[in-house]
Specification:
The chain has twelve helices and two strands; from the N terminus they run H-E-E-H-H-H-H-H-H-H-H-H-H-H. The chain is mainly alpha-helical and about 325 residues long. Keywords: Cell membrane, Membrane, Sugar transport, Transmembrane, Transmembrane helix, Transport.
Length: about 325
């Protein structure tokens, strides 16, 4: 009789073979991917619900005339057309532009200088850094009230210090020609500690060996900064400029601080565009027009930021 042989079964994969290791590797990668998406999900959901959705609704509301009682009347692009003849809006944009081109470079230079000053360790360095950063952890409302108290005409601490020079009668917040400059100084004082820490983080990425080599080759302090530190610090500088520009236009110091200090006065000399949008929405109940203004400001910021990225390659000017 012919004997039949049972078909050979495929050999089982033994534990520890490459096949099993590959399966385990794929499973581990899948678990890591699930964990990563789980960690990202709250931020993504938050951005969609609290940023993306309000932006879409803002573009929709800008097409309506909305009063404080919730009455909607479709007006199309009328709110956008109104901007061209709004003299107060143009004045607020001028104030905001003056503030930005003054505040951003001054804060940049002061913060970088402080970072260079405190980058080296010495006794009490922790206290010095904390003292510079302390204003940034205080509420801007408290900062505004503090400086308002210091700058009270004839009775404030600043007036007392200036009295020997015959300047006790100077009203820093009540004089149109001085109010905006005072606002810039207070803003720089508030933000310099935060930007100093950002620059310190960037300076830690500068290899010490490069500075030592330049020093051995006879380079002075300015030459080491110009040719060694500054090129490596450009990405950090780019972040500081973009961040401070956005903050100067739409940040808390563009509204909270100026609202507490001067409420836009005197003679609208400190009326920023954000403060003007607030007044249109909650003082004059022109919510539709205020929303249209907001969309235009956001669009301008996006365009300016995009141009800055494109022209400077994210701060890497010299890379091909």
């Amino acid at each position: 009789m012919a004997t039949t042989t049972a078909p050979r079964s495929k050999p089982l994969v033994k534990a520890g073979t490459p096949g099993e290791k590959q399966k385990r590797s794929l499973t581990r990668k899948q678990r890591e991917a699930v964990a990563a998406y789980a960690f990202l999900a709250p931020d993504v959901i938050g951005l969609l619900v609290f940023v993306a959705l309000p932006m879409v609704l803002a573009f929709a509301v800008a097409l309506f005339k909305v009063d404080g009682f919730g009455n909607y009347q479709y007006v199309g692009l009328a709110n956008y057309k109104l901007m061209g003849s709004d003299d107060q809006l143009l004045a607020s944009l001028k104030v905001t532009g003056t503030y930005v081109i003054t505040y951003v470079p001054i804060a940049f230079v002061v913060s970088l200088a402080l970072a260079m000053l405190v980058r080296n360790k010495f006794k009490g360095i922790g206290w010095v850094r904390s003292a510079f950063f302390l204003p940034n952890v205080v509420s801007l409302v408290v900062v505004g009230l503090l400086w308002q108290f210091l700058l009270v005409d004839k009775r404030g601490a600043i007036s007392s210090l200036l009295a020997p020079f015959g300047l006790e009668d100077v009203s820093f917040l009540g004089t149109p020609s001085l109010a905006l400059g005072t606002y810039v100084v207070i803003s720089v004082w508030f933000i310099m500690g935060y930007q100093m820490l950002v620059f310190l983080a960037g300076l830690k990425d500068v290899p010490k060996e490069l500075e030592d080599a330049a020093h051995i080759d006879g380079a002075g302090s300015w030459q080491r900064f110009r040719y060694v530190i500054w090129p490596l610090l450009r990405p950090t500088s780019f972040f500081v400029v973009v961040n401070s520009t956005i903050g100067a236009v739409t940040g808390l110091q563009a509204f909270d601080l100026v609202y507490v200090l001067t409420a836009g006065g005197p003679a609208r000399s400190t009326s920023t565009v954000v403060l003007y949008i607030y007044e249109q929405a909650f003082t004059f109940n022109n919510i539709g027009y205020a929303t249209a203004l907001t969309t235009v400001v956001v669009a301008l910021l996006v365009i300016c930021t995009g141009l800055m990225f494109a022209l400077t390659r994210g701060g890497r000017f010299d890379e091909e």
